[in-house]
Amino acid sequence: MNTIESKPLIKLKAVTILSNTEISPNVFVLSFRRDLAFRAGQVLGLAMQANDDARLYSIASGENDENTDILYNIKPGGKLTPNLAILEPGDVLWISPPFGTYEGSSEPAYWIAAGTGIAPFISMYRSGMGDNKILIHGGRTLDSFYFSDSLLNDFGARYVRCCSQQQEEGVYAGRVTQYLEEAEELPLDQKYYLCGSAEMVVESREILISKGIPFNNIVAEIYF
Amino acid sequence: MINTGITVEKNTLLGKTLPELKLIVEELGLPGFVATQLAYWLYKTNIQSFDEMTNISKKLRQQLADHYDLGIVQFVKVQQSADGTKKYLFPVSSHKFIETAFIPDARRNTLCVSSQVGCKMGCLFCATGKQGFQAQLSSGQILNQLRSIPEREMISNIVFMGMGEPFDNVEAVLNATEILTADYGFGLSVRKVTVSTIGIIPAMELFLRQSKCNLAVSMHSPFDDERRRIMPIQHVYPIKDVIEAINKSDPGKYRRISIEYIVFGGMNDTPKHVKELARLLNKTRCRINLIRFHPVPNAPLPPTDEVRMAEFQRALNEKGIVTTIRASRGLDIDAACGLLSTKALVQNENSDF
Predict the structure, then answer these.
(1) In chain B, what are the domain boundaries?
(2) Contact assignment for B203 to A139 by CB distance below 8 Å
(3) In this predicted structure, what is the pLDDT of residue A2?
(4) 3-state SS, residue A120
(5) What is the mean pLDDT of residues B283-298?
(6) What is the pLDDT of residue A9?
(7) pTM, rounded to two decimals
(8) Which residues of B make CB contacts under 8 Å with A?
């Protein structure tokens, strides 16, 4: 979840950046020490200054990890991300307390993401919820599959990469929506978590509903 | 001059507030009073070109035209319903279009304007949500929907209930509401302009501080779990926090707050819902506007019938909440609530998946 002003009445607190690493072209992981408890899937507001309007990002680290990670991409012309990208270790960033109710569970489920929408699922996975999940991640190019090394290792065949513009062995050639269209025997009684752009979420939701999955079993988070 | 094939888009004047026009005039080194003249021509008249601004000298008009476009865009299509409702299609850039609904009735002539091309909110029941998000509208593109229709002079009410979530584009919407209600602008009463939101709290709080216009909140369920399933925004801005933010904001004696509530038969119109709505809105001076669900393709939600709708209205009225039922207008041309969509015209060149 990102790019909207956060609650201005919530006081932001300063944190010191530990690292800000470009993991793929224009895609970064920003880290600072975790000193607030959160539930995997929650968001927090980020701002460059104490009185700026904060923008919301899903946390991308585990509930018990030492540091809190934020996965973001640079939005050209954006108010925050071009500035975030030049932060260096030791610089100060302002954050809100974590909030939101997009949360994982220990039940079997599908996690379906596009782009940086994988962030809440990384948080859930690092919080120990990945064992009985199927993770389907869509991206335009092969370098869009962030954290794929550890995901391949831990999820194996339960990790599906869908690449719409490039091809590679072991990667489904096509959009995540096309993969869902072609998927057979999707269980009707499991939860389907969606996270990504509005286009991806509404198209995926429509496909799942057309396959008989009750809308009550679809849990959607949209980046806005 | 060599044609490079690159078109540099000029900034537009429509949608600029008077202070912004003053800055523009100052930057161009023009006399200060030209700003007031520009506001007059932009918002009080129907002129279509700089040449028609007859009280501005030809030289100054040329200077303005060298740097700015007026920002006036004609609609490319209009459909008329059997009930008199009209739906206009406006282009906002290549391959991007918005719809605007003109809704006349005996007491008022309402214009329902769009604030975005598409929408990011993904509500399960909404046709606009199904097309995803394509672009923000500028304040000029919002105001052009009023300025460029033949019914312009007869519009009494403006509602920001067309395509898009207004508070996901709050700066443009605030500029537009200022110009709609300013003496130098369209001169509408703040009581005749309503902005509708699903409850993006920070932007809503900004609106409540900066504008005196009416506010409508799309609730559709008072229950956390139920609302989350049909409106993803509930994950970050729960409706109880939205109502609390309104209560804290001291909404003003004259501002009308309305709660928009699409009725899904047997799902969100039970006695349990009546009780929870009464509890949730206990401290809020508002009215509830019940809306018939106009089914969109593949939306797995039930419409209601007139008997259930009337019963739900009566139950809410008995709880002391003024509750009305919104007339469904323009159904035959897909202009009714939740049906606006330009999906068929969208070219998805920038998807991230």
Answers:
(1) 11-69, 77-345
(2) no
(3) 41
(4) helix
(5) 91
(6) 53
(7) 0.93
(8) 118-122, 124, 129-133, 168, 200-203, 205-206, 224, 228-230, 232-236, 238, 298, 300-301, 348, 351-353
Q: CA-CA distance, B112 to B105, in Å (whole number)?
A: 13
Contact (Cβ atoms closer than 8 angstroms) between residue B41 and residue B47: yes
Residues in chain B: 353
Q: Does domain A109-222 have CATH number 3.30.70.100?
A: no
Specify whether the CB–CB gap between A163 and A137 falls below 8 A. no
CATH number of B77-345: 3.20.20.70
- Phi and psi at residue B30, to the nearest 5°: -95, 160
> E strands along chain B, which residues?
11-12, 68-69, 77-80, 86-93, 96-104, 109-112, 116-118, 133-136, 157-160, 193-197, 214-218, 257-263, 287-292, 323-325
pLDDT single digits (tens) A90-136? 999 999 999 999 999 999 999 999 999 999 999 999 999 999 999 99
ipTM of this complex: 0.91
CATH number of A13-95: 2.40.30.10
Does B181 or A35 have the greater pLDDT score? B181
pLDDT of residue B348: 60
